[in-house]
Write a sequence for this structure.
């Protein structure tokens, strides 16, 4: 699907020239395509079939309107905090389809999850398991849990976003998992629901995902032989997308890989997809402030910065940068940088561009981990978010006002 495309040299999102959005809402500004979000969700849910619950990983993009869209399509949700739980509930998400991941759930968060009657807490350590058991017992409830195991497979991705290797902080080592299940099965306040795993993000090769699923399946079989009958296997997220010239897994191949590993198992499946559902559905619009030539390098200074989109600075991530209007002028290599006072504040390096002050650019594939990782660094207000559908556009989060940044602070001198 070609959500963002050129017509007569102007970049469109669906049927809207993006320039209209930039003029109406100002820059920087995030823009998401409803058609793309719907299409991605439906492709995955259809390929995976009715026995798989697609849970949207809220951390990728947690705007309430986006969550509501997924809720209406029947998605479940993968959350990692009380804040994400509250967002999903406010957006009309079904608590019975929420799984709660993360290594550091606080007692307050565990209580909130049990009160909301979510589907499953994915437990990351023995210490957390016993805390959950104590809290559930205290509340007179049984806590639905899965152990998140660490299958120790190399996902072949950036090491900051690899989570299924032995040295990472995530999950319970495979060799400790069976014992812990056996102990947990004895506890009256725990309901053993499944096994969970997640090995990393932006995976372009399906082999490690298949390997992890096979290891999870082996544990499931072992536990079944021990008399522990689990209801679901949560195989995590991590499916990569195309940022530049990668060939990411398509939903059918992904479904086939999981099917191969789990053949013959009737058990229900859960996946926790974030980036693959929203990544290519969003762009960040920005305007060129200045061109700058320091003798050996050209800089294109734009009004978006690392506080708006952190991925290039944090991971050296590549995002394509496209002009909103294609020009016939000759391009030259430039670093596209923001106004933040750090040398690491760049959106792209050495990109051929024919830009001049005032031009509009789109930073592509910014729908996942874009706004969600934004901050107020350098006291910059966070940008607005706009959802487009056909010819329509709708503001789903307005630009922050300056005074909102210090609204929670004391100003003793005044
Ligand atoms: N489930 C768990 C337990 C996770 O830790 C993650 C992501 C997901 C699901 C969703 O993974 P996805 O399908 O989006 O790959 N900020 C980084 C990505 C961090 C991902 C962390 N965990 C980035 O911008 O690339």
């Amino acid at each position: 699907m070609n959500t963002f495309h050129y017509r007569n040299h102007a970049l469109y999102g669906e049927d809207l020239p993006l320039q209209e959005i930039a003029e109406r809402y100002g820059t920087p500004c995030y823009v998401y395509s409803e058609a793309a979000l719907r299409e991605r969700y439906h492709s995955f849910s259809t390929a995976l079939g009715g026995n798989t619950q697609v849970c949207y990983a809220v951390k990728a993009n947690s705007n309430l309107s986006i969550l509501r869209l997924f809720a209406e399509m029947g998605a479940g949700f993968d959350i990692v905090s009380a804040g994400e739980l509250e967002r999903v509930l406010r957006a009309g998400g079904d608590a019975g389809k929420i799984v709660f991941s993360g290594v550091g759930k606080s007692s307050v968060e565990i209580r909130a999850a049990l009160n909301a009657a979510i589907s499953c807490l994915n437990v990351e350590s023995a210490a957390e398991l016993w805390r959950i058991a104590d809290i559930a017992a205290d509340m007179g409830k049984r806590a639905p849990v899965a152990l998140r195991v660490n299958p120790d497979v190399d996902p072949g991705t950036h090491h900051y976003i690899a989570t299924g290797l032995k040295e990472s902080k995530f999950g319970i080592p495979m060799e400790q998992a069976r014992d812990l299940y056996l102990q947990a099965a004895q506890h009256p306040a725990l309901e053993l629901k499944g096994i969970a795993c997640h090995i990393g993000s932006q995976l372009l090769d399906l082999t490690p995902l298949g390997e992890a699923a096979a290891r999870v399946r082996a544990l499931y079989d072992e536990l079944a032989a021990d008399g522990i009958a689990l209801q679901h296997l949560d195989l995590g997220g991590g499916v990569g997308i195309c940022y530049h010239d990668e060939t990411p897994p398509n939903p059918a191949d992904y479904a086939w890989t999981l099917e191969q590993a789990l053949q013959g198992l009737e058990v229900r499946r859960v996946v926790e997809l974030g980036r693959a559902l929203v990544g290519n559905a969003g762009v960040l619009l920005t305007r060129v402030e200045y061109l700058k030539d320091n003798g050996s390098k050209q800089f294109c200074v734009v009004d978006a910065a690392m506080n708006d989109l952190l991925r290039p600075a944090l991971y050296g991530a590549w995002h394509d940068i496209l002009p909103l209007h294609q020009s016939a002028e000759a391009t030259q290599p430039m670093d596209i940088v923001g106004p933040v006072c750090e040398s690491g504040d760049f959106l792209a390096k050495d990109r051929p561009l024919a830009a001049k002050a005032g031009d509009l650019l789109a930073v592509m594939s910014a729908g996942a981990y874009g706004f969600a990782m934004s901050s107020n660094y350098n006291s910059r207000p966070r940008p607005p978010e706009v959802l487009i559908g056909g010819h329509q556009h709708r503001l789903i989060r307005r630009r922050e006002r300056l005074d909102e940044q210090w609204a929670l602070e004391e100003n003793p001198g005044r």
The two ends are 55 Å apart (CA to CA). The first strand starts at residue 4 and ends at 7. The chain has a mean pLDDT of 96.
